[in-house]
């Protein structure tokens, strides 16, 4: 009894091997790009929370909001590390789009800090008490008093 096999052709194996390798590389790039997108969302949330808490600490002068702004700014700086992964696994168009979306608001920081004291106090006293809950004026001054008179603060 003679067993017959189909004719062996080594050229048929190469495209299959290369297609699997290409598919794995494409999946790896897709995972890295989705990771960088979620890191961008993560940074955006903490960057917005930094500005919101700094805004509240600037006008309400509560150290709890200032502490939250420092924490959120720390998360914003620590997540910049994932930008290098985006440089490794994407083309120039996506890099430039990512950089323009993530670092363009930083250009407005000097203008934000220069013009904020001049135009916000004019409408803030009439605007702020309308959206603050009723428990905040009774809760936060006691917290402010306890934080201001703590022993770890230098002033």
UniProtKB/TrEMBL annotation:
Keywords: Membrane, Transmembrane, Transmembrane helix. It comes from the Eukaryota. The chain crosses the membrane at residues 32-56, 62-84, 96-116. This is Uncharacterized protein. It comes from Acanthosepion pharaonis (Pharaoh cuttlefish).
